[in-house]
Amino acid sequence: MKVLPCVLVGLFLVGISLAAEPPPQAEETQGFRLVSFSSYSRCDIGVAVSSAREMLEGVEARHSKESSRYYQVYLSTDKNGKERKEARWAGTKKRPVREYVWREIPLVLMNISTCELTQHTVLRRIVQGGFVLDDKSEDLEIRVEGRSYGTIWNGYNTPYEVVSSGDKRFVVVGNLWIAYSDRKEYKFYAPFSRILYLEFPYLRLAGYEHLEADLESALAELDRLKVASRAFPGRTVAHVAREYFAEDIALLPQIEHADPQEFLAFLSGSVTMNPLLRAHYILGAMGEDAFEGTVSKAGAQGLYQIWPPTCRLLRERYPKVLPVNCRAGMGSKIHSHIVGMMAAILLYDNNLKEVLEVRGASALSDPGLMQWLAGMYNGGPKRVFCEFLKYPKGCRTKIRLETKIYLEKHAFLKPQ
To answer: Any residues with CB less than 8 A from the CB of 58 and at least 6 apart, and which?
Structure first.
């Protein structure tokens, strides 16, 4: 076990302390009030994450040669057997997962009072009916944090809860994850957790500022490239975005990375942690590495969840703007969050063109315009046309439940 006192961290990092100076006053950010942080942990998560990465560099994590399949169970009923209001999204279902029979997971824990970092390794084993964590520590117990629909393993972003025998409180600031593949690839990540949400609210502001800076950089790059708008020929994409939808682009990571069932649980009052803030916290802790390797079941990737076929479509319609390698994921470590945001801006411009072709210029003053564009970003233009705009070529399908909840998340962040 490695222990890195906060004093030594300051020495190793050339005098940088893990104690963070909280923002001096409350601010309004997207309708959420940032409260005074004087009563919260003053440890600097950004420095702690960097230190945790150094501590785990070169650490060996073993795993079994054999693999096994088990089922993750997503619950639609509460402990009393009553159906949850959010069950309209998930229902009770089992999803098969193929994994190593056992694996070691090196973690770095931070004492939120002293800011001291400690390395700790847990063993995850697949057993009948799920998985268990074996922890040999006498004074600590590490568990997987429960979510609104059960205790679910989420790979390198699995939320951990640390229970101490004394009055000490800990947060996991880094873990080393071995990808399940033929190649032994390690991934470092700082997982989101409830204690991170409760004790480090300044991360929310840091994540918000990250997105605001990315938006300005993305628009400046589109300006520099003089990318022509398809929605408004003769104008640039950056100019159109600033006038009509740039504010919405900065909301997309919050919407994309808020679990639909947890959002519905939050609306119903069964959970108090707002999942729409999750993306800001992860961005505040991980910076440019946040959401690296995040891939949906449909194959959408990165911070902005750009689908590779969508990337190829945008490359065709906006030549020489996006990188050639669409399979690497827009908004990932390879192509950066700024490139992902550029892709999102181009997709909005492309979809705005289709709206104008169907509804004409009157659509620009319609209060539902931003909802339509958000729905198209998630579910494609045709389904949104069928649901809201009376597509002239006839409709066979309307928006899916996923897109309906996506629009509820959008409306929560940006009520009309």
So the answer is: none
Position 88 scores a pLDDT of 47
Contact 9, 47 (CB under 8 A): yes
Give the pLDDT confidence score for residue 33 in this predicted structure: 32
**Cα 61 from Cα 4, distance rounded (Å):** 20
Rg of the Cα trace of the chain?
A: 22
> What does the alpha-carbon distance between residue 218 and residue 238 come to, in Å, rounded to a whole number?
9
Written as one letter, the residue type at 116 is E
The pTM of the full predicted model, rounded to 2 decimals, is 0.84
Residue 322 has what pLDDT? Answer: 87
The residue written with tokens 């939050």 in the block is 266
For residue 406, CA distances in Å to 111, 259, 276, 355, 373 come to: 37, 10, 11, 19, 12
| Amino acid at residue number 155 | G
Backbone angles phi, psi at 182, to 5 degrees: -70, -25
Model pLDDT, residue 51: 96
**CA neighbor of 377 nearest in space, from 415, 412, 403:** 403
Q: Which residues of the chain have pLDDT under 70?
A: 1-39, 75-93, 129, 136, 181-183, 327-335, 390-396, 416
Are the C-beta atoms of residues 218 and 211 closer than 8 Å to each other?
Answer: no
Cα–Cα–Cα angle for 170, 173, 179, rounded to 5 degrees: 130
φ/ψ of residue 4, rounded to 5: -120, 100
Cα atoms in the Cβ-side hemisphere of radius 13 Å centred on 193:
25
Residue 97 · residue 153 · CB < 8 Å: yes
CA distance linking residue 96 with residue 76, whole number of Å: 17
| pLDDT at residue 64 in the model | 92
What tens digit of pLDDT does each residue of 184-219 get? 788 899 999 999 999 999 999 999 999 999 999 999
Sign of CA dihedral 5, 13, 294, 375: positive
CA 339, chain centre distance (Å): 17
Question: Taking the mean position of all CA atoms in its chain, how far away is CA 223?
Answer: 28
Residues with Cβ within 8 Å of 317's Cβ and at least 6 positions away in sequence, in order, are 230, 346, 350
In angstroms, rounded to a whole number, what is the distance separating the alpha carbons of residues 252 and 259?
Answer: 13
